[in-house]
Amino acid sequence: MWTRVWRCLWLVVTLMLYRAGGVVLGGVEVGEYLKDRVVGLPGQPKVSFEQYAGYVTVNTNDGRALFYWLMEATHTASSKPLVLWLNGVYLIAGPGCSSVAYGASEEIGPFRINKTATSLYINPYSWNKLANLIFLESPAGVGFSYTNTSSNLKDTGDERTAEDSLIFLVKWFARFPQYKYREMYITGESYAGHYIPQLAKKIYEYNKRLSKPFINLKGFMVGNAVTDDYYDNLGTVNYWWSHAMISDQTYHSILRNCNFRLEDTSPTCDSFISYAMNQEFGNIDQYSIYTAPCGKSSGDGKKSSTRFKKSLLTLRGYDPCTESYAEKYYNRADVQKALHANITGISYSWTACSDILIRNWQDSDFSILPIYKELIEASGLRIWMYSGDADSVVPVTATRFSLKRLNLTVKSHWYPWYYSKQVGGWTEEYQGLTFATIRGAGHEVPLFRPKAALQLFKSFLSGQNLPANPTV
Predict the structure, then answer these.
(1) In what helix (H) or strand (E) does residue 43 lie, and over which residues does it extend?
(2) Which entry of 391, 392, 402, 459 is annotated as an active-site residue?
């Protein structure tokens, strides 16, 4: 009884502090995070979990602020880990897309947007059944995240993105002290194959300077990950050929004329890549080669470039129809108000992806493999990589080529894993890293195979091998 009374008293006092603007204790404003509480979204069904959203300033001089959306776990949130989701989704060469648009609204979040962008409905396979999820729109210029210094949109790259993300986390934990020391994981996909290991390294280095690190990073997992320019390019062309997307002649012409070890390819190489994409692919969804594109809009924005490492830049994320629902919904004034978003009156509309960022991206590591080697040897982090095997953009062959170069010792040899009594994919466990495929999934694995993806996530969090038993 008294526990219940004290809990009610604490809640009353906290709300009073919030309404009064809060008080400062030990340098932290008590109840500050309550200012970010999302009471409810327009058209949202009733839910059992709390939501918070808002901005964290990561650079005062330039006025850079990153937007986040926290969706706490559906049950016993206080005992569940914290999972940060990051999106890239702008194909092989770069970043620029929103975690709210993709991770939250199409993949692992609890809500889906209906076709008229008037209401939301529940995703039964949301990952917040197992963890507290935080979606970060990064870098500044993506989604609701902004900068007051316009030149920032033209001089951003991998290094600044990782630095800003670390600053975001440090400040976010100060705002949400209840999450300090909580088990934390990072996950995401595509160009987050750069973001996630780079951020994990920054956190690892930051924690080494502290006697008691409050960012309790335990591991990370990345899907269909941009990893190494050479092996990504080589693996992609091999995927095209092995899946009958291009002719023998074009395949051999590309291999003969393209030196993927160079930062820039030759005009001859570009011409063969362009021919393959424009003449031989046909009207398919490159993110999921066995599913139909979205009606007449399937070609919207899907123009091929003449440069392979930039060839897929202008393509958008999977299912342009779903993306359009998100753009309609998140541009609604009532939605933005509910999310505490666009509080400065950004001069452009919210979009799922930022063209200006990718056109002007300044630095991109040629290979992330050295970071994997360093973290595997030194950090003790749980590291998983996974691939939807129907993705031709960052395909399973590209990831397998990269993994081969790590020369890791095999702990559990290749075997099929199961969910709902069927093969979910295949997996192999190495010393320091686990790799898994998801059968029939495209680039956004949780979108195409949500139930299998939830099993993948469950196994990752538990640190256990994926189920080898077909009765699971």
Answers:
(1) none
(2) 391
Per-residue pLDDT tens digits for 222-241: 999 999 999 999 999 999 99
- CA dihedral for 444, 79, 337, 168, sign (positive or negative): negative
Q: Where are the alpha helices (DSSP H) in 280-354?
A: 320-330, 333-338
| 256 contact partners, CB below 8 Å, separation of at least 6 | none
Work out the pLDDT band at 464, boundaries 50, 70, 90: very high
Give yes or no for a cis peptide into 467 (omega within 30° of 0): no
Strand partners, 67: 55, 137
Q: What are the C-alpha distances in Å from 202 to residues 167, 223, 283, 364, 451?
A: 10, 20, 41, 16, 32
CA gap 5, 12 in Å, rounded: 11
Residues in the chain: 472
Q: Looking at the predicted structure, is the pLDDT value of residue 24 above 70?
A: no
Tokens describing residue 150:
């316009």
Give the Å distances, CA to CA, from 13 to 17, 31, 65, 175, 229.
Answer: 6, 10, 30, 18, 55
Report whether 386 contacts 394 (CB < 8 A). no
Number of H helices and E strands in the chain, helices first, is 13, 14
Specify the amino acid at residue 394: V
DSSP state of 408: P
Check: CB of residue 128 under 8 Å from CB of residue 104.
no
Is 391 marked active-site?
Answer: yes
Q: Global pTM?
A: 0.89
DSSP-based three-state secondary structure for 20: coil
**Both tokens assigned to 142:** 């993506």
The catalytic residue among 98, 126, 145, 190 is 190
